[in-house]
């Protein structure tokens, strides 16, 4: 894991492996958590908690810059990983990786295949109840829209405070990423969709034979 963190921060210098890209994807979903951590560091470090104020949010330039940097780093790391794969593998689709819901469902999950033996899913499925996959697709789209609502700053609601909305959306994004993790790994296991391994099974150092016990 330590190596993966280093590879994410120095993405152009290392070949992208499954743990590296997977970690970078997780970090993009944790941006709001990182920004909240920065907020509380300033809140308590500057002593604003004693007066229950947060004036530094408007007046402290270092705070504003750090909030921007913290938000950019995970997405920048993932973008650089995609660009390295674009140049190494000559796969133009890598340049579009991570830009929309379509990529999550069709590329990362390998679903919505019209000609699959499991209509609109994919040939190989781990879960026998196919409805689970369709529910996951709908949930992913809805939670993406909720996340966009925060990014586009449509956070004012009549029933929920702005800070509460940010916390709720951050939790929902973590939930969405958890669902994504399961179906992404399932697809990679069955289809090697990301081309991170050269063979499907790993031979174990055991040899089983039917032997008659004397």
TrEMBL record:
InterPro entries: EXS_C (IPR004342). Residues 15-214 form the EXS domain. It is a multi-pass membrane protein. GO terms for cellular component: plasma membrane; trans-Golgi network. Its main location: membrane. It is found in: Membrane. GO terms for biological process: cellular response to phosphate starvation; phosphate ion transport. GO terms for molecular function: inositol hexakisphosphate binding. Keywords: Membrane, Transmembrane, Transmembrane helix. The chain crosses the membrane at residues 61-80, 131-152. This is EXS family protein. The lineage of its organism: Eukaryota, Viridiplantae, Streptophyta, Embryophyta, Tracheophyta.
């Amino acid at each position: 894991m330590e190596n993966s963190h280093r590879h994410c921060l120095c993405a152009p210098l290392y070949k992208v492996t499954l743990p590296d890209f997977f970690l970078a994807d997780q970090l993009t979903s944790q941006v709001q958590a990182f920004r909240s951590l920065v907020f509380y560091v300033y809140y308590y470090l500057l002593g604003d908690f004693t007066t229950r104020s947060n004036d530094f949010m408007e007046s402290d330039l270092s705070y504003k810059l750090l909030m921007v940097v913290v938000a950019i780093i995970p997405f920048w790391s993932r973008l650089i990983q995609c660009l390295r794969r674009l140049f190494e593998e000559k796969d133009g689709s890598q340049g579009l990786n991570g830009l929309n819901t379509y990529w999550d469902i069709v590329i990362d999950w390998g679903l919505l295949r019209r000609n699959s033996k499991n209509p609109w899913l994919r040939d190989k499925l781990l879960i026998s109840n196919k409805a689970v996959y369709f529910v996951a697709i709908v949930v992913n789209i809805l939670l993406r829209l909720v996340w966009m609502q925060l990014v586009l700053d449509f956070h004012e609601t009549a029933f929920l405070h702005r800070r509460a909305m940010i916390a709720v959306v951050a939790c929902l994004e973590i939930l969405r990423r958890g669902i994504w993790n399961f179906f992404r790994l399932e697809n990679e296991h069955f289809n090697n969709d990301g081309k991170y391994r050269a063979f499907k099974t790993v031979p174990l150092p055991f040899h089983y034979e039917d032997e008659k016990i004397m």
